[in-house]
Amino acid sequence: MLFEGQEQIKIWPPYEVFYIECIKTASLNAIESWETLNKIVSDENLLNTNAIDTVDLAENIVNQAGIISKYFFPPVNDKKTKNLIHKLRGEKLRETFKIDDNQELSNRTFRNYIEHFDEKLDLFLNKTIAGNIIPPKSVFWASENINEVTYIFKTYIISEFKFISLNEQIVLPKLVEEIYSVYNQCIEFIDNGGRLR
Q1: Mean pLDDT, to the nearest integer, of 71-78?
Q2: Are 161 and 60 in contact (CB under 8 A)?
Q3: Is residue 45 helix, strand or coil?
Q4: Distance (Å, rounded) from C-alpha 67 to C-alpha 182?
Q5: Could you point out which of 90, 166, 169, 172 has its C-alpha 20 to 30 Å from the C-alpha of 148?
Q6: Helix 53-72 vs helix 84-97: angle between axes, to the nearest 10 degrees?
Q7: What does the pLDDT look like over 20-62, one tens digit per residue?
């Protein structure tokens, strides 16, 4: 733990740029997937030939959101000294990027999705299934096209901007809006010498 005068330093200033770059990369990756996804669904020809790609693009957005979320909300156990640096880093990044507990990126759904997907898949595939099982990846226009006895591995609902995996639903627009905000702040920080505010 570092101190400058009486102030505790949560991230050593010369190292701030490393966090900025990591968050920027994940944000840009999500944004590129979002823009490609929207390009496909807004063009009938692209949708006819590339609809299944929307599933992978939506999943990538969720994966990148999980990565970004971990920078702001690291898992910490206050009793362990080694976790204090993670806690302090998360505090500094949340303060600087103005991320609070009411925003989408604070939702553990995205982190849990990437961190525990293998375990959820085990449970999903090991329960007795009675109903409709659709192909591993599928696309629907609206949720009404899916009945209550349909088991979904991965799908994208076009009209609702919704990704569903293992029957868990994640609506993307508000999440992507926050990711754009984070990305734009990263660019601003890089333009100002790679320093956080």
Answers
A1: 79
A2: no
A3: helix
A4: 13
A5: 172
A6: 110
A7: 999 999 999 999 999 999 999 999 999 999 999 999 999 999 9
pTM: 0.89
Residue with tokens 């570092």: 2
List pLDDT tens digits, range 75-101: 766 555 568 889 999 999 999 999 998
Query: Which residue is listed with tokens 């496909």?
Result: 40
Radius of gyration of the chain (CA): 19
| Alpha carbon separation from 51 to 117, 131, 157 (Å, rounded) | 23, 25, 11
**Measured distance CA(29)–CA(6) in Å, rounded:** 39
Q: Which two tokens stand for residue 35?
A: 């823009």
- For the chain, give every domain's residue range: 11-191
Q: Hey, which residues does 99 pair with through a beta bridge?
A: none
Alpha carbon separation from 191 to 20, 22, 180, 185, 194 (Å, rounded): 11, 15, 17, 10, 7
Residues 165/113, Cβ–Cβ less than 8 Å? yes
